[in-house]
């Protein structure tokens, strides 16, 4: 049985839930990708973004942080012609945030060390009887959001950051009855 939010009966959505969502993620490129995609989801369904993930990977050089940090306005124009969400400010935010992530890497050694420090490098396992009762923010997502905003990150709010934390396994909010918990 899967979490109740996997309603689409879409193979992409089911595979994402079964194989990725809530599993601790520590690889730098994957963290940057997931963070970037979560910022794209603001105001949209996650499935909309997930279905465009391959196009985002192509557009953003496989989410190589150093490469994306060097992108220019010409790259934004190029990306907007691709099969991504056509929102220039969101695309520009990925480039902007990439530059800020380079600062975090210099300071913390890795994105992994930065993000996971907010949960003491240990996933939080919540008792979620039904996804409708799961939190959408937490004091930790609030604190992480404040830190990111202080550093100048764009398209970050506590709901977006909590969704990122769930997705990368910092928080495990699989329903208690879910086979993938």
From TrEMBL:
SUPFAM superfamilies: DNA-glycosylase (SSF48150). This is DNA-3-methyladenine glycosylase I.
């Amino acid at each position: 049985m899967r979490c109740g939010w996997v309603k689409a009966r879409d193979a992409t959505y089911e595979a994402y839930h079964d194989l990725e969502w809530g599993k601790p993620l520590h690889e730098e490129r994957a963290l940057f990708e997931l963070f970037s995609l979560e910022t794209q989801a603001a105001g949209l369904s996650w499935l909309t973004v997930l279905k465009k993930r391959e196009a985002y990977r192509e557009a953003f050089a496989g989410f190589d942080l150093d490469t994306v940090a060097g992108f220019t306005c010409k790259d934004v124009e190029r990306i907007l012609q691709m099969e991504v969400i056509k929102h220039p400010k969101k695309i520009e935010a990925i480039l902007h945030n990439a530059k800020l992530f380079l600062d975090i890497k210099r300071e913390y050694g890795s994105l992994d060390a930065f993000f996971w420090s907010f949960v003491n490098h240990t996933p939080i396992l919540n008792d979620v009887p039904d996804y409708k009762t799961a939190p959408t923010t937490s004091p930790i997502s609030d604190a992480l959001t404040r830190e990111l905003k202080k550093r100048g990150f764009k398209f970050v709010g506590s709901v977006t950051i909590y969704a990122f934390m769930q997705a990368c396994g910092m928080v495990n909010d699989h329903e208690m009855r879910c086979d993938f918990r």
